[in-house]
Amino acid sequence: YMAIEKASQAVVDEPLQSVPDHLRDSHYKGAEKLGRGIGYKYPHNYNGHYIQQEYLEHEQTFYEPSDEGFEQNIKTTMKKRRSNQK
To answer: pTM of this prediction?
Structure first.
């Protein structure tokens, strides 16, 4: 619930963020000239299907797992994945 609220508020606060160039469509003639798709890392090609890269114009965190129940496992997994990327 809290993550949805944060994401909804982000849309209200800044509704029009640009899509980073490496995420933009690169399947047309001239895309490379515009820098589209250059440097994109396909997450499924990486261990755990995770790769740290820019997905939003401004870095934002919407979901922050707690230390309760299954969220504790999620928190541990997220920390592990992020530390493996450095």
So the answer is: 0.69
